Amino acid sequence: EAQVTQNPRYLITVTGKKLTVTCSQNMNHEYMSWYRQDPGLGLRQIYYSMNVEVTDKGDVPEGYKVSRKEKRNFPLILESPSPNQTSLYFCASSQEPRDTQYFGPGTRLTVL
Amino acid sequence: GDSVTQMEGPVTLSEEAFLTINCTYTATGYPSLFWYVQYPGEGLQLLLKATKADDKGSNKGFEATYRKETTSFHLEKGSVQVSDSAVYFCALRTGFQKLVFGTGTRLLVSP
Fold first, then answer.
1. Are strands B105-110 and B11-14 parallel, antiparallel or unpaired?
2. Which of A4, A42, A94 has its CB closest to that of B97?
3. What digits encode the pLDDT tens for the residues B50-65?
């Protein structure tokens, strides 16, 4: 089954404790993105990747890092999480830049 | 910059009622337009799309027409079901895979 998976689905952590949210797709897609969803703001793009070792900032990259060492994986790293990063995070992928994006199920992060 | 504005929710309807969720956009050039749906506890799924003016996207009884003259892409369904209860996002795409989303509209359908 074609899918985008994220782990963990739920995470509660404390300020400053480094964490990684994993994202994996099994469709051999080249393009992957991370979004955060906040009430009243919709989804905003954090980072995206056009291919292995090629990443770029989206609209709200501050406080986040990403890496793309393999085509299927695109982890989101929070080196020193803060409460304002409490949000619902989605990973997405697509084959070509203008193709339909497939979204993962989301990761709900709470930073205390 | 590019932006999407959609009506505030929640929209509360009874089953079999007619649904309209308004969406207008501001964009340079000729964006593609999308409606995504998010069911409770799930990620976003593409519901329908339109890539040029006057195109009509349709899926699962939902329709939306790309209106360039009014910069709108309103979502409609003739008869909603309880299972349609979800959050609906209007979005446009500009540039390189960059989706710009509206704030979402929650639809609640009661039996």
1. parallel
2. A94
3. 989 999 999 999 999 9
Which chain B residues touch A104 with a CB distance below 8 Å?
43
**Cα–Cα distance measured from residue B57 to residue B47, given in angstroms and rounded to the nearest whole number:** 9
Mark yes or no for CB contact B103/A101 under 8 Å: no
| pLDDT tens figures, A45-79 | 999 999 999 999 999 999 999 999 999 999 999 99
Collect all residues of chain A within an 8 Å Cβ-Cβ radius of residue B43.
Answer: 4, 90, 103-106
Residue B58 burial class via C-beta count within 10 angstroms: exposed 0-12, middle 13-18, buried 19 and up? middle
The one-letter code for the residue type at B66 is: Y
Q: What was the pLDDT predicted at B97? A: 58
Contact B50, B56 (CB under 8 A): yes
Question: Is the torsion defined by CA of A50, A52, A57, A63 positive or negative?
Answer: positive
Burial B73-89 (b: 16+ CB within 10 A, else e): bbbebeebeeebbbbbb
Q: Nearest-CA distance from B8 to chain A in Å? A: 9
Q: Is A61 within 8 Å of A46 (Cβ atoms)?
A: yes
Residues 6+ apart with CB under 8 A from A88: A36, A37, A38, A106, A107, A108, A109
pLDDT per residue as tens digits for the range A86-98: 999 999 999 876 7
User: Rounded distance, CA B64 to CA B49, Å?
Assistant: 8
First to last CA, chain B: 41
